[in-house]
Amino acid sequence: MDNAGKTGEGPVAAGSARLIAVPLLACAMACGTAAAGAAGWKLAWSEEFNAQAVDASVWGFENGYLRNNEAQYYSNRSENSRSDGGTLLIRALRDDWNGHAYTSASRTTRGRKSWQYGRFEIRAKIDVRAGSWPAWWWLPDAGGWPRGGEIDMMEFYQSKCLFNVMDGNQKWTSPTRSLSSLGGARWAEAFHVWTMEWDSTRIDLSLDGTLINHYPLAQADGTGPNGSNPFRHPGYMILNQAIGGDNGGNPAATEFPVDLRVDWVRIHAWTQGPSHTLTVTEGTGGGEYLEGTEASVTAHMPPAGQVFDKWVLVSGSVVLDDASAASARLTMPATDIGVKATYKAGSVAILPGRSRVRGVDRGMEWRDDRMRAGIIPKAWFGRSGNPALTVQGRRTESGPKASKASQWLLPID
Predict the structure, then answer these.
(1) Which residues are annotated as catalytic?
(2) I want to staple 188 with a disulfide (CB 3.0 to 4.6 A). Which of 128, 166, 283, 371 is the partner?
(3) Alpha helices in 30-183 (DSSP H)
(4) Exposure pattern of 43-61 as b/e (b: 16+ CB <10 Å)?
């Protein structure tokens, strides 16, 4: 995220979940215990956003108008950022609050928590409409901008995702992926996983398991403070939802709010010890993991006309915390394992927020905007025979938009 004009510098998962044994599909790979490797990923820290409030010991606020001529005023109000149904919600509003036409939030770990090297992952849903500029990025603890460098692990504006690394001389390496190439509006309706793998030799930025930017750290040698490499020093994270400005586009025709919703942030450290391979088919999260550590697997977006069904075991033996969830966790056993995401025919109604659903269509699947799946009971129909639901106490007819009070359904082919 372009930092020009910036002022200043920039408990592990709650409660045990229900354990469900993953059904065995086939031993497509060797089923026996493989020889352990010498090192692998170990869960070092995670933020699941399951508490009633966001952890203020980790996540602070930036305040004011900060950079890039952006339209929003960053506040510390709960209207702009809060824990919401098991996610971190960062919400941009057109609300004319205290004379500010637009407000939003920027959450930062600066001065609270920092990291050097590891596998950084975020599962998030972003708003891709005009004027929206969400980002998850890294800045150095010391050295300032630009000398300390910048890594944009997730960034979006004007119909493209960006995967940026900027050295201390302000030289950008910035591959992009267009929204249309990712799947357009259908892609934007789902949560996705952005990953950074960072060590003393390279930075790899990926989206849903596909490597986009491989950056050899040697390219930044001598560009950092006092002739150092800016990416061999610790730094902190920022999560923000900007509006407009130099790059975000014109938000005038966009209906607000504009939301960045984060399901979780997880960081693994490369650690010496016995490790084994987790292979994930039709999903992300594969790699070498230490025995006994927690790993997460996330299904790819289903093909058109299909919905996520369940995880199945391809090889080895393991349990997932919820085999019916598109994003699930497991504890790495003392063997190589393989899991696969499976899909089935169906359509999905996307419901706003943490929706309470009563009603019906004959077994039609639904998901709220956290993409947690469920089955609508076969109990009730609207008079016309079309599906109708009661959402957050209000009856809502099926259709692209049923009302302007965020009570709508969007069938997906």
Answers:
(1) 150, 155
(2) 128
(3) 179-182
(4) bbbbbbbeeeebeeebbbb
